[in-house]
User: Fold these one by one.
Assistant:
Number 1:
Amino acid sequence: MRLLRPLLTRRALLLTPTFLLACARPEQQTSAEIEIIDFNAAGAQTGAHRRKHIDRSLAEWRSRLTLTQFYSARQGSTDTPFTGTYYQLHAPGLFRCVCCQTALFHSRAKFDSDTGWPSFWQPVAPQNVRTRVDKTLPEERTEVLCALCDAHLGHVFPDGPAPTGLRYCINESALRFDPA
């Protein structure tokens, strides 16, 4: 025990300045920059722009979104099929992220998948979405997220129509529709 006391004291003396410096320094928030393809209200591409990744607390997201939007986009929940209006909407326009307004899907890529969710065969720009492996169910799926704010959008499956053969099955509550 006698041997530990000097060791602990020496260790404490060596580590205390490092600890105090770390505590005194203001927390730095570094957000990666993401390249997003922007679109105007008419649905025309306006170019690529670099934006800071949006990183908010769950409390901030909860205050900005409805409960349904929050649970879907921020908590990864799934909308009940055939309960919204977007799955049967065929008007020209853009579907944007409900959290950050990034353009995600154009109505020209929308198709009726008979699943009860809005379905698209491709995103409006590949840079605007990202995917990751979802292992929450026994069957592995591919989750689709907004590239700018990481909102959960839905999943992509390899059973869609030509030309991509993909079906982006997206939660309506994670989208906002802007008519052309």
Number 2:
Amino acid sequence: MDLTVIPGSRIVEVARLAFATPDVDFLCFGESDQPSPAVAREAAIAALREGNILYPDVRGLPALRQALSGYLGGLHAKPVAESRIQVTASGMAAISIAMAAVVRAGHRVVMHSPTWPNIANAARLRGAVVDEIDLDAQPDGGFRLDLDRLDTMMNGARAFVLNSPGNPTGWTATEPELRLIREIVQRHGAWLISDEVYSRLIYDGSTAAPSLLDIAEPDDRIIVCNSFSKTWVMTGWRLGWLVVPEGTGELIADIVEAVHSGVASFTQHGGIAAIQDTATMERFRAHCATGRELASQALAGLNGVRYQPPVGAFYAFLAVEGLDDSLDLAKKLVTRHGVAVAPGVAFGSAGEGWLRVCFAQSAGLMERAMQRLRDGIRAEMGS
């Protein structure tokens, strides 16, 4: 049939195998085993009981937009007007809306790699040409973005997509780097789309990762995407938002109307309650910090593995010496060793030779799963 074809998800491929295999520990999805905030669940249930089931304002409930405006203004160096906020049906929907607004067939979109594959596919669905700039892997297992190379690649590009803190690497741009990225993209007359869904999951003692909302002017050609999924442990709620340039709110709302026509109001009421629940957010970050430490302990001293604890997000991204088929290894880890992790190649060719582990899990699960992973890597790679 004459349908659009995009690359399938290797993460889903591993997950489907794991679902069909008994006794497998899941560390392959970007999802925690912790519950969503009780106040959010209660608010959504109350909204349903009160009959909040009609079509909502496509821009998002005014109360949620106002809550997000206050939240972002308190978190970042510059205020964010409520008129610049668009509620979306998930963080992925936010990225798709940004692409629909900015990208046309034949445009070139630059993004760093390895990165979450859905971002590139959203650009491809718009008919864009995706150019990847590989993050430079450092000897200690960390990463850096070569800004001189980015400057060269942005010549003639329509947009640059930034993901910081990044999935799967945990790479997090510093504020000076963000200022340079903004300057480069502006100089080339391009758009900057920033995926900041992991902004609160940072482990250096900061309240949040450096953000373009700290430095950008309201009328910059910058769109910031975010979500309730990670910060508030609300992956299945499918609730996200955009911060768009001043004066473009109605134009973006028209695109949302054509794509998914708004977000269920009872879901949005859950989001309003979640924003007010700062305790859950802090507790979840501490939970992830514990998982990060458990992953580091399990990977320490493992021959043939190079790993550095990430600055942000909730993934351990580890290089395995001699690994040239991460998908094959990930499948063997499922069927032979009872642990599901994401193959590095799922995040682009720059990810081949690596594995991604989601450490946002309970201590018991982490300890068992990481032991299975250690045993599996030793057995399959001879390390």
